[in-house]
Design goal:
The chain is mainly alpha-helical. It is built from two helices and two strands; from the N terminus they run ααββ. It has a two-stranded antiparallel ribbon with strand order 1-2. The chain starts with 15 loop residues before the first helix and ends in a 14-residue tail after the last strand.
């Protein structure tokens, strides 16, 4: 089995001063997440089709385009009989 990481919090550690000390870490994590999200959006935005319509997400060919135009248009899954 893999290593297990845990945190045990006592009532003493749930004081506002303890939570306040975590703010710099949380702010940095939010900043890093925002940077990575912007980078990923920038990379994926180049692959989004400019023309409106229905597209299939390519999950079978890693070297192919991310979106492909399907041969047959499909109804929205919310309107099907499933």
């Amino acid at each position: 089995m893999g290593d297990r990481l845990g945190s045990f919090v006592t009532r003493f550690l749930i004081e506002p001063s303890y939570l306040q000390s975590m703010l710099p870490l949380l702010d940095r994590l939010i900043e890093i997440t925002d940077e990575q999200t912007q980078r990923l959006c920038g990379n994926l935005a180049k692959q989004v089709p400019k023309a409106e319509g229905q597209y299939a997400v390519n999950v079978s060919d890693p070297n192919g385009p991310l979106f492909t135009k399907p041969d047959k248009m499909v109804d929205d899954i919310r309107h099907s009989d499933f």
